[in-house]
């Protein structure tokens, strides 16, 4: 799933972390890998992130933070940055969506939407 806005493309891939999860204790851990690619003509720096995480029961959690994985990646035209992080849910299915706050070389601040994506534990075959 990807979305392009401000000529910055955000691509997301998710993985259920079976070994780290414990369904009996309502612990479902998911990794997500995000690639941010700058297709614009100017450079930009990622300043912060915002996430809305929604569990399968409708419970919402909001997370805001400085940068991503401790970094503030600077993306020149046609450059990309990939990182992996994780989210914990208390239901086997949920979704995440959000945005990055970025700043161009001209000092202009703008938001880049992160498309909604699903987190889903695979169903066990009996």
From TrEMBL:
<dbReference type="InterPro" id="IPR023065">
    <property type="entry name" value="Uncharacterised_ApaG"/>
</dbReference>
<feature type="domain" description="ApaG">
    <location>
        <begin position="2"/>
        <end position="126"/>
    </location>
</feature>
<dbReference type="GO" id="GO:0070987">
    <property type="term" value="P:error-free translesion synthesis"/>
</dbReference>
<dbReference type="Pfam" id="PF04379">
    <property type="entry name" value="DUF525"/>
</dbReference>
<dbReference type="InterPro" id="IPR007474">
    <property type="entry name" value="ApaG_domain"/>
</dbReference>
<protein>
    <recommendedName>
        <fullName>Protein ApaG</fullName>
    </recommendedName>
</protein>
<dbReference type="InterPro" id="IPR036767">
    <property type="entry name" value="ApaG_sf"/>
</dbReference>
